[in-house]
Amino acid sequence: MRAKLPTSSISAFLLPPRTHPPLAPSQLHHQVPTHSSFLTSPTGRALSTNPLLHKAKSHKGGKQESKRTVTANAAKAAGIDPFDFVGYDAAIAHAHEALKDELARIRAGGRDLEGIEGVRVALGKGNVSGKGEANGGLNGGGSGKEEVVRVRDVASVVARGRNVGVLVGEKEHLKPVHNALLMSSLNLSPTHSPGTDPLTITIPIPPTTAESRAGAKALASRKGEECLFQLREARGAQRKRHRSMELGRLVGPDDLRRALKEMETRNEGALAEVKKMVERCRKGLEG
Predict the structure, then answer these.
(1) Any long-range contacts for 189-196 (C-beta under 8 Å, 24+ apart)?
(2) By the 8 A CB rule, do 220 and 281 touch?
(3) Taking 60 as the threshold, does the pLDDT of residue 69 lie above it?
């Protein structure tokens, strides 16, 4: 037995669709579309087609970006630049120049110019004899006490072929420097020629031996390690500067990342240059 449909449903299908009276031509041009339109379903109900309501977009991220931009502009105005490596480059150049000078002083004959410069020299103050002693050193030329200095303070040490020359600045310092070199633990044999060069002490370099060559190489490696330590100190100072910028939000993360990469590139180049300098010195000592 067939089920009967409700009378209202049957009426909805049997009734003809609603029609609107035709519009005049003038009304077609002046009809203004509304924001929302309605469609009629087969049942006669009006269906709304209003656009969906979306949640308002938060402006919190925009405020943060704006704050970062203002901070970056303020840092730029204050002269804060993460790509400023002037101080770092100067420290690298200073370390390389110091290493170059140190390596130039090393000789395969076992004569370390720095060791000669570091010899202690005792210089007498004033007149320690005659009237000075009788007056107890008061107003008579000094108290008779000795002043201890280094050879580098009163003379210049230079390499001259197979010899080392010690150029004394003042004549009264010639004998104290000569005696200090002779009595030092470096096993030196200083000579003095008053007729040819009255203010120069000559130290002959003994023939090169395997022991002296090995000692010179070890000294070159030690000087290279000292230079590497200076470079690590310079890198730490530059990294600390970048860290302060990061904590203070003075620069953007992208700029800071690029600056750190640039710093590491410079550091690797500086370390490689030290290695080359030491290797050249060691090869020169072999010849």
Answers:
(1) 190/166
(2) yes
(3) no
Report the distance separating Cα 1 and Cα 222, nearest Å: 111
Q: What is the C-alpha to C-alpha distance for residues 124 and 137, in angstroms, rounded to an integer?
A: 12
Residue 277: both structure tokens together: 């300098």
| The predicted structure's pLDDT at residue 111 | 61
* HSE, side-chain direction, 13 A CA sphere, residue 271: 12
Q: What is the pLDDT of residues 188-204, one digit of tens each?
A: 889 988 878 889 999 98
What residue type is assigned to position 172 of the chain? Answer: E
Q: Using alpha carbons, list the distances in angstroms from residue 273 to 89, 97, 101, 220, 276.
A: 13, 11, 15, 14, 5
Residue with tokens 């690298």: 92
Report pTM: 0.53
| Cβ-Cβ contacts under 8 Å for 220 (sequence gap 6 or more) | 103, 106, 278, 281, 282, 285
End-to-end CA distance of the chain: 121
Q: Work out the average pLDDT over 65-81.
A: 57
User: Nearest-CA neighbor of 273 among 52, 82, 95, 71?
Assistant: 95
Q: Is 273 exposed, middle or buried (0-12, 13-18, 19+ CB in 10 A)?
A: middle
Whole-Å CA distances, 274 to 229, 277, 286: 11, 5, 19
Q: Where are the alpha helices (DSSP H) in the chain?
A: 7-14, 25-30, 60-77, 86-104, 113-117, 131-134, 151-154, 174-183, 210-247, 253-286
Q: What is the 8-class DSSP label of residue 171?
A: G
How far is the C-alpha of 177 from the C-alpha of 191, rounded, in Å? 11
| Tokens, residue 74 | 């303020």
